Amino acid sequence: MDCIFCKIINNEIPSYTIYEDDVVKVFLDIEPMAPGHTLIIPKKHYKNLEDIDMETLTHINKVAKDMYKLLKEKLNIDGISIVQNNGCVQDVLHYHMHLKPYYNENNGINVEEVFNILKN
Ligand code: AMP
Ligand code: ZN
Questions:
Q1: Which of the listed residues 4, 39, 96 should we mutate to test ligand 1's pocket, taking the one with most ligand atoms within 8 A of CB?
Q2: What is the residue-wise DSSP string for 63-87?
Q3: Which domains does the chain have, with CATH numbers?
Q4: Residue 96 catalytic?
Q5: Which of the ligands is closest to the CA of residue 41?
Q6: pLDDT in tens, 3-12
Q7: Structure confidence by residue, pLDDT tens digits, 18-56
Q8: Residue 8 phi/psi, 5° resolution?
Q9: Does residue 90 have its Cβ closer than 6 Å to ligand 1?
């Protein structure tokens, strides 16, 4: 299947992966709206919120809680917005949850620097 996020799961294209388990992969958005902008995706290809099952959604939310804690501890974010796009506002048609950090003062660090901080 020609899906960019399935290719990330299969390591056919590289990603800044900060966490993974049997159900999800978590990696940094390549065009972050702020440092630490993170995507959580199921390893199974679900298209969107209509498609995905409750058990997987519950697990994604559990991982979101853990990732929020990680981002707070390691990047000192001041807030976070959780977004999941569907329909005409969804670009990549493989379910993904955005974790978008907010800072009182933007630290300006790039994706690779964020990755190194989160992985240590
Ligand atoms: P949307 O489908 O509109 O919710 O957004 C898709 C998101 O995926 C955007 O924020 C992109 O920057 C991000 N994205 C697209 N390709 C990649 C990639 N190869 N690695 C990481 N993030 C990506
Ligand atoms: Zn996919």
A1: 39
A2: HHHHHHHHHHHHH--SEEEEE---G
A3: 4-119 (3.30.428.10)
A4: yes
A5: 2
A6: 999 999 999 9
A7: 999 999 999 999 999 999 999 999 999 999 999 999 999
A8: -65, -45
A9: yes
